[in-house]
Amino acid sequence: MATDVLVPTLGESITEATLGQWLKKPGDPVKADEPIASLETDKVAVEVPAPVAGTMGEQVVAEGDTVAVGALIARVEAGDGAAAKTETAKDVNPAGPGETPTEKGDPTAPHAEEEAAALRLSPAVRRAVLEHHLDPSKIKGTGKDGRLTKDDVLAAAKAEKAQPAPQEAARPEAKPAAAPAAGERREERVRMTRIRQTIAARLKEAQNTAALLTTFNDVDMTEVMAARAKYKDLFEKKHGIRLGFMAFFVKAAALAARDVPSVNAFIEGDEIVYHDYLDVSVAVSAPNGLVVPVIRNADKLSFAEIEQTIADFGKRAKEGTLTMEEMKGGTFTISNGGVFGSLLSTPIINPPQSAVLGMHRIEERPVVLNGEIVARPMMYLALSYDHRLVDGREAVTFLVRMKEAIEDPTRLLIDL
Questions:
Q1: Which of 3, 6, 341, 355 could lock 385 by a disulfide, CB 3.0 to 4.6 Å apart?
Q2: Span 120-174, pLDDT tens digits
Q3: How many Cα atoms are found within 13 Å in the side-chain-facing hemisphere of 5?
Q4: Are the C-beta atoms of residues 179 and 362 closer than 8 Å to each other?
Q5: Are the CB atoms for 347 and 171 separated by under 8 Å?
Q6: Residues ≥6 apart with Cβ < 8 Å to 373
Q7: Does residue 53 carry a pLDDT above 70?
Q8: Domain boundaries, given as residue ranges, for the chain
Q9: Is-contact 292 281, C-beta < 8 A?
Q10: Is residue 175 a contact partner of residue 105, using CB atoms and an 8 Å limit?
Q11: What are the residue numbers of the active site?
Q12: pTM given for the model
């Protein structure tokens, strides 16, 4: 007897998704509520659990197919999987009793495990594996249930490049690799994931709808870096989380938003919606693109609560386990391009929000201080905003308030 596996409800207003990856193959044993497939929605990846324990049966749709909520995607057969695997082996084994395909000289048998691993890769990971010519079975996965992430593949590729080339004398039997044909050019077409399509549509919507403008300022990070260096060990010992820079910027943004409420507002029809709270969307890198989970009531959270929330978001973004509810809302966005080495950028707002703060890398630059030129750790800040709602004076004031709070962190404690 088989049990149907249906596409679950994916959230408000979401009616379809893309089947990103099968996590089980036909014949594999499955437990009740064990993830058997991963769906890509407009915002996050959602795992589909097995409705009952049994054996993975027919898979009705293929990876990359679009499926509607409630649609049949697979069946789970009764049994523990052993019988199904035995039957499958009999069907595909042309050898006689007691013989295996390997004994008959089947050249594909040694690669079965590698091919099985390849089938469990998500499109983004599979593309990275192909680009770097790596064997996925030899890479340790850090994702959920040991699955490979794109970061795992990139780390393996980097490690392989760092290894010294072996001496020719050590392997005299090796033959030089064939050089590519002169003038040979190749291209590859990869279908955009649903998340990437949504990112593209929303960013273009922001450009088409909002009157975008970016204002810049720079901030001296000396005091924040000194405070972090002085208290980071005690902070981690007490709270179990590292003290980063993001908590300072979230608290500074909350302070600045009180003086410039339009930055934390948005336009709805012919009305302006103001908020007496700050829900900060934090841009986080995920295997399939950028996602923006929301820190709720960030203005009321402590430094430790902010850092714990961000760390949890980052971990689960890589695993693909962020929920739809965690992606909803947000009144203001902070994007830290500095972690990737960005010196300066003009970030695009996340509709319907009216502003986004761009952080960048810290680098020592010469500045004039008390009439002397000195080297200071400086960071450029960029505020992109919807000029229909936020005036230039307000944007500058917001950045100045943030600059004052970062350069003198005591202001964050006394609400000044």
A1: 355
A2: 566 567 667 766 778 777 788 887 667 777 778 888 888 877 765 544 444 445 5
A3: 33
A4: no
A5: no
A6: 366, 367
A7: yes
A8: 2-92, 211-414
A9: yes
A10: no
A11: 387, 391
A12: 0.63
Residue with tokens 């689960």: 316
Task: Return the HEC string of the chain.
Answer: CEEEEECCCCCCCCCEEEEEEECCCCCCEECCCCEEEEEECCCCEEEEECCCCEEEEEECCCCCCEEECCCEEEEEECCCCHHHHHHHHHHHCCCCCCCCCCCCCCCCHHHHHHHHHHHCCCHHHHHHHHHHCCCHHHCCCCCHHHCCCHHHHHHHHHHHHHCCCCCHHHCCCCCCCCCCCCCCCCCCCCCCCHHHHHHHHHHHHHHHHCCEEEEEEEEECHHHHHHHHHHHHHHHHHHCCCCCCHHHHHHHHHHHHHHCHHHHCEEECCEEECCCCCCEEECEEECCEEECCEECCHHHCCHHHHHHHHHHHHHHHHHCCCCHHHHCCCCEEEEEHHHHCCCCCCCCCCCCCCEEEEECCCEEEEEEECCEEEEEEEEEEEEEEECCCCCHHHHHHHHHHHHHHHHCCHHHHHCC
Phi/psi of residue 219, nearest 5 degrees: -135, 140
User: What pLDDT, on a 0 to 100 scale, did the predictor assign at position 98?
Assistant: 44
233 class by beta-carbon count within 10 Å (0-12 exposed, 13-18 middle, 19+ buried): exposed
CATH class of 211-414: alpha beta
Cα(14)–Cα(80) distance, rounded to whole angstroms? 34
Residue 45 bridge partners (DSSP): 40
Task: Please report, for residues 213, 295, 305, 331, 373, the alpha-carbon distance to residue 299 in angstroms, rounded to integers and kept in the order given.
Answer: 25, 9, 11, 12, 37
The rounded distance, in Å, linking the Cα atoms of 44 and 199 is 11
Locate 143 and state its tokens: 């994702």
What pLDDT score does 117 carry? Answer: 44
Q: Does 2-92 match 211-414 in CATH topology?
A: no
Q: Using an 8 Å Cβ cutoff, are 13 and 198 in contact?
A: no
Instruction: Return d(Cα 325, Cα 320) in angstroms, integer.
Output: 14
| Cα–Cα distance measured from residue 347 to residue 337, given in angstroms and rounded to the nearest whole number | 9
CATH architecture of 2-92: Beta Barrel (2.40)
Among 19, 405, 167, which Cα is nearest to 415's?
Answer: 405
- Report how far residue 20's alpha carbon sits from residue 18's, in angstroms, rounded to the nearest whole number: 6
